[in-house]
Every structure is written in structure tokens, then in C-alpha cells.
Fold this protein.
Amino acid sequence: MVQSRTVVKVIDNTGVTFVRCISVLRGPRAMGSTGHTIVASVRDTKGVSKIQKGDVVRALIVRSKNEKARYDGSWFIPGESACVLVNATGNPIGTRIKGLVSKTLLKNRDNLKILTLATQSV
């Protein structure tokens, strides 16, 4: 679960490595999980990037550390939470996504672009 002030890893190629959650776009005191959008502040970047440290961005959570059981009885419990930077319309800013992406993103058809960019979906 992601809440305010949680540090989340970014798994796309925007040059940002970590962001800190400012708020979850679900209402006050909301907890975010896979598929929710957060407003975050950039904590760390690598190399030269258009997005600098301290910028406020939106991100979509693609992996949550606490994952629930699926309908088919299987469990997917990743070791860390991860996100992908998105713009105001929900389209990803980066062109590649490294690492695993949860298939629970299929619940919302707006996330199909992110699923197609991902290397693996579990």
C-alpha cells in the first residue's frame, strides 16, 4: 500500500529513480494500491533528464508491495512498490518500462498502453 510520504521506485526510462508520494488521487487519507494514480515529488534522478529533482509529477502504481490473492487462487507478492510516470491524461511519459507489471491494471482499460510497453506482466 502506498500512502503519503511513501518512497516508490520508478521503473520507466524517464531518468527518475525514486519519487515520494504527496497524495493519492482517491480522496483524503486514501491508501493507494496497484492501478491508482498518485501525485509525487521527484527524489532522485540519474543522468540528464527533463524532469529534475523536486518536480511534482503524477505516477501510476504498477506494483504494490502488499498484493491480495487473485480470483484464480494465485498470489503475486512483489518485494517493493513501483510506479510509472504519467501525464495529466494518464499516458506514460517514458517509452519503455523495465520490470514486472501487475495484470490487475487490466481492470481499467486506460492502462492498456502501460501494459503493452512493459516487458513482463504477471
About this structure: The mean pLDDT is 86. The chain has one helix and seven strands. The domain at 7-121 is CATH 2.40.150.20 (Ribosomal Protein L14). The first helix runs from residue 112 to 117.
